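Deliverable D4.2, example record:
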Amino acid sequence: MQTSLDTAVTGPLAGLKVLELGQLIAGPFAGKTLADFGAEVIKVESPGAGDPLRKWRLLKDGTSVWWQVQSRNKRSVALDLKAPEAQDIVRQLAGEADVLIENFRPGAMEGWGLGPDALQALNPRLIMLRISGYGQTGPYRDRPGFGVVAEAMSGLRHLTAEPGRVPVRVGVSIGDTLAALHGVIGILLALQHRTRTGQGQVIDVALYEAVFNCMESLLPEYSAFGAVREPAGSALPGIAPSNAYRCSDGGYALIAGNGDSIFRRLMALIGRPDLAADPGLADNAGRVARVAEIDGVIGEWAASRTVAEALAALDQASVPAGRIYTVADIATDPHYQARGMIDEVRMDDGSRLAVPGIVPKLSLTPGGHRRNAPVLGQDTDEVLRGIGLTPAQIAALRERGIVAGDGEAA
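Output generated by the structure prediction step:
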């Protein structure tokens, strides 16, 4: 069991009661974000294995270190949602909750008698966030949908490649995370509406729509010009210059010289005042037409310098630039440290685990890391007692495998 910090609950969402029924990434990331800012989040997991994320990727003492990021500040209740008795418990918890989060396939909650109609009849103020691959309506609603599929359907996957090569996925579950953040926005909007009217509502977030919402001018360019944006590798099509340039030590400098005045400073820096003064390159449209020429001269300049030398010169000239960070760079970067983005979890064995800090930064009501991620069912007994179940009733449910508590595996 990891050590709980047990610090006082603070933050702008202190007092908000959230019931999290989802698993893996999208729903739990939304719950984590609310919990970071003070919400009381009760996470319901299945007895036995719990949330599959507990066993994803690299494990420490049998549990994923990712778990310490995704489930901090939450409490864990182990319930078998397929059992009618567990469904009754969820109804009681939802009756007292402000927000319910779920990311099961559409229809699953209704099959358990836990759909919006049933729960909002008990609690009209309940806000229900539903995250799924394709949304709760439409011809694809019943298809299984993971983030990687949503990223492809949104158009993102088509763009993540070098021209003529196989598209690659973004190296993290960006579709799930974007859906979670859209869900959090929806919750905050719904809370504002409820403050005025007293009414709860349902928030329907589809993974593919959350990614599609971030696809910038992709659709209007197709609508207006029939233009299908194609992969462009490290460049940003239609905006120039903005690319990754190989340096003499084999690394890359990312240079964004696409502002008009920035471009002139960049050209002066690399010894090409003629291009800085060229009226044909004075705006973005002209630079896009000659992007190969511009990239070529910047590339020649970068190739004669190390990444550190190039970035120092670019910084001196006030040209936006950076290098490609690995996690080792992140962990030791002074800016990450100064911004509080490298937090620590103290484990039971005395070791410390680095985890990301809190985002966003609020000046008056900042979020915080109050409680480490729970072991499975750590808070079952406490939560069930809180809704009126007696120790004997909890013990009977435990004997039948409907609940697990106090860190039990089953």
